[in-house]
Amino acid sequence: MKKVLSLALAGALALTSVFSANVADASNAKKAAAVPTAKLSIAAAKDKAVNASTTVTGVAVSTKGALACKYDAKLATSIASASAVVVSGDAIKVTVTATKAAVACTDAAVSVLSANKEVAKVLVTIKGAAKTKATKSLKFKKNKVVVAAGKSTKVAYTVKKVATADAAKKVTVSSANKKIAKATLIKGKKKVKVSVPRTAKAGTSTKVTLKSGSKKAVLKVVVKNPAKKVTAKKSTVVIKKNKTKKIKVTVKAKNNKKATTDAVKVKSSNKKVVKVKSAVAKKGKVVITVKAKKAGRAKLTVKVGKKKAAVNVRVK
Fold this sequence. Notes:
With about 325 residues, the chain is mainly beta. It has one helix spanning about 1-35, and strands at about 35-45, 50-55, 65-70, 80-90, 90-100, 105-115, 115-125, 130-140, 145, 150-165, 170-175, 180-185, 190-195, 205-210, 215-225, 225-230, 235-240, 245-255, 265-270, 275-280, 285-290, 295-305, 305-315.
């Protein structure tokens, strides 16, 4: 009986010894697997690769300088490269380069190997490049400007943008004919400076174009061509009641080969008799369209810039 008990006790002790050994082995394996780890954060840029470094201590390196870095190939859109060097004792410096316009990632593991054995690990978090803005619309606040030779003006524009992953598109400006007008962007303001050279001929015109991505806006620039003299072709015009007639007034401009750029204003002394419908400046003249409403008389005063002329209208 005693012999049986002794054998049972011996067996129990043996099992306890085996269990203890297994627990110890598991603990040692866990300790071996827990390599020194550090964290690294990088703010990516949309137009260039960005690198950052961190130091990991407590690293068991078998051969100085013989270090390599390894990371998942799926991280190629986030991490361009990684390297490690021994800096002192058990400390190593790990440098990670984020790709241009890197895709964001959190705690991406970069393993440091010494003699093909992992000796350290860096968990990399990359803040992806901020989404840029693409141009949705681009407009000048004016369609046309008149500028005297030797003078300049500023024209505002509006630009609307929307978030996109595409590269940002800058606003640029150009002139179709720099002999007539030059255009430059005013830094820090949504304005374009339009300058007309002294040598530009009166009445000539060109186009200034704003561009941003696929969007563009066009501004017509006309060199000021002031009226020098305004004369009515006929002092009195007769129109039948309820009829429409075009009345022409001769305009002599600085450059008579081009229409005057001066503002044209026509006023009727009796709107119940004659109504002015439109007045358009053309080469060498102004064409006025009037409507005869009822029998009577009215005087049309035509003002082109600072010059004036008068036309008497009789409705029968």
